[in-house]
Every structure is written in C-alpha cells, then in structure tokens.
Specification:
about 130 residues; mainly alpha; 2 strands; about 60% helix
Length: about 130
C-alpha cells in the first residue's frame, strides 16, 4: 500500500490532469467528446469516496463529472458524437429504449396498469394483468 505522501502525490497528479482536460474542453470544441471520455475514465478510476473531492479540486462541477463518467461508460455507443451534449442524448435514447421499461402500477381494484410510454396529453390505458 502506498504511503500517505505517495497517495497525495498521485491524487494531486490526477487533479492536475483533470484540470488540464477541463481547460481543453472549454477552449476546444473539436475533441470534447474524447476529452470527456478521458476525464470520465480518470474519475471512474478514483475510489468512490474520493471522487467528489477530486472533481471539486479540479474545478469540475458535480453534474459534469457524472456526465463525463457516463460518456466513458458508454463510449462504444457515443464515440462518433459531435459534442458532449450529443453523446448524452444518445445515452438517454439508449436508456429509454431498453427492455424492461414497462412499469406496473397497482390500483385500488387490485388491477394492474402498464405504462409503456409517458405522454401527459393522453390518458393511461389499463389492461387486465
């Protein structure tokens, strides 16, 4: 196990690398998705209980840190996205289209209702189950 001094040195190197990548993202629109992936991989490699301290020290907001980790986790599906926002949209579509998205809801008459698509303009149609 590394000594405390070695751990601090490693963590400060990680923070410095994340801060550099964050500056690249802010200044260069061309490779943002690649930089986001790299940042996400670095953050995913940090122990869970230390992540918030690391991204805060690097000047990264919590939401963006989670976005970067999401891009890294879904890289095969988003590697051709033109932007981080586009990559996150692709990830969102994957989650919506996945199997097992039907949610049974119990009602007073012990019937079941399955919501297959959420549309506030249309009422929910129930079927016997």
């Amino acid at each position: 196990m590394p000594s405390l001094r070695q751990q601090i040195t490693i963590q400060s190197a990680i923070v410095q690398k994340l801060a550099e990548l964050q500056q690249l993202i802010e200044s260069n629109r061309r490779d943002n998705v690649r930089y986001a992936r790299e940042m996400g991989e670095i953050l995913r490699g940090v122990a869970t209980e230390e992540r918030s301290a690391v991204w805060t020290a690097a000047g990264i907001k919590r939401r963006m840190a989670f976005n970067y980790m999401s891009v890294a986790a879904h890289w095969p599906a988003v590697q051709r996205a033109a932007s981080i926002r586009g990559a996150l949209a692709l990830i969102g579509r994957q989650r919506q289209a996945g199997p097992g998205r039907d949610v049974p809801l119990p009602f007073e008459d012990d019937g079941r209702c399955v919501v297959t698509q959420h549309n506030p303009a249309r009422p929910v149609h129930c079927r016997d189950g």
